[in-house]
Sequence to fold (164 residues):
Amino acid sequence: MNKRFPCFIFICSVLSFLVILNYSPSGLNAETKPSFVARLEFARGKPLTLDERISFGKRKIEMEEELDETRTRFTAELSRITGLSPQTIIANLREENNPDKISSELENITRKKLDAPVLSRIQNAGSARKEKILEIRKKYSVKFSEITGVKREVIMDYFPGYGL
Fold:
């Protein structure tokens, strides 16, 4: 057996472990914010175990999928309301999280003033989307709290900063 082989396995194991931990060789600098996991670990005062990380990762993927589905439904609804393609809306809508600016951005995209019934439907769609996102955040804050031991309210405060 080659003498270098055990060393190779050790190095691969360490690198794999560091990837799991979201390690960055450059470390944190002023332009990099800590990962969501790192924020939760700091809040709880100790690192997550491997099993907790795996469970957290699965739940986070589920949450991201639900949020993506909500965004897709919202885009489809805006498409039905305005007659614009979903691709056009996605490419041009910068303020999707600000319901007050959605209407004005859609007016800029269509280059025409939207009438009151259309504006009302857009507001309703935005409100429904906002409620659904809040529902998803509440659901997953409970799940993440059960995994990490961090209070649900603290987790809720972290979501917006990470696009969740």
